[in-house]
């Protein structure tokens, strides 16, 4: 598969944007300046960016607490991210939330919920809508490997398979469901093997290789768009931080983290881009400078924004 330089640099910018944004959120959280929690996806950027960049306008995604990279690559702004985490009135949730549980229907992003993978059935519903309306669009729901043990995961795969819906299920296997390792939560060799019972084609890819992820996602999305769906992709990666900002992840061995640190998705892709001539030291520095400046502006904007007024508490409970 031939990938243009523009697409390669788009992948790089999106991964750097997510990494640098999460590093800033981690810094703000540790300073006690954020009212809520953070759920870092550091180390998993390639899994999200490689999948979402295979989508087109009009396609939909559903995400979880850790999927900031997917939100950003589908068009969520840094101002939306920062006002959300500072719980300001002009945030996507009007100051009611302070984490990644938000979306933007105008961009095809359904707001996630904390019970995983409750958004899988929602994605299947959007895929059913696409099929009934004869629309050439695809739904892409995300979840972690821990969520594949729940009934709604299997119900979603079953429904999508029975009705041959245009949906590409993404399972980001980051080795731990909070503190539970793969070895005692999944009976199959690969998470992708769970799709066999529904006669769904599934790929298990290196989730730290953005090119490997993108190629698999592009193939799956194209097939789903052309009536051959559903499909499933397992992206094998590693959660390099704790479950949340408060979690030190003492249950993960230093040896395992060191092993995965050698496979950092951004460092690997930078090496590839330098060797191919698609990235220079100057370009890399410019990307980092631009992103850092944009993050600074978004943080300032959020800090200067107002908190919601108490008398608005009951607003937003029901759809207006």
What does this structure look like?
- This protein has helices at 5-30, 45-52, 68-73, 78-85, 119-132, 151-162, 210-225, 254-261, 265-276, 281-304; strands at 60-62, 109-110, 139-144, 168-173, 176-177, 180-181, 201-206, 231-236.
- The chain is an alpha/beta fold.
- The protein has a single domain (5-243, 250-305), classed as Thiamin diphosphate (ThDP)-binding fold, Pyr/PP domains (Rossmann fold).
- The strands form two sheets. It has a six-stranded parallel β-sheet with strand order 2-1-3-4-8-7, sandwiched between helices. Strands 5-6 form a two-stranded antiparallel ribbon.
- The chain is globular.
- The protein starts with a helix and ends in a 16-residue tail after the last helix.
Low-pLDDT windows of residues: none
CATH level-4 homologous superfamily? Thiamin diphosphate (ThDP)-binding fold, Pyr/PP domains
Per DSSP, the total helix count is 10
State the helical fraction: 40-55%
CATH class value:
Alpha Beta
Task: Tell me the domain tally.
Answer: 1
Spatial shape: globular
Average pLDDT metric: 97
Provide the structure class: alpha/beta
- CATH architect. name: 3-Layer(aba) Sandwich
> Largest sheet, order of strands side by side?
2-1-3-4-8-7
User: Remind me, CATH topology?
Assistant: Rossmann fold
CA gyration radius, whole angstroms: 19 Å
The ordered string of helix (H) and strand (E) elements is HHEHHEHEHEEEEHEHHH
Give the tally of β-strands.
8
Strand residue percentage: 5-15%
Distance between the termini: 46 Å
Oligomer: single chain
Q: How would a crystallographer describe the biggest sheet? A: 6 strands, parallel
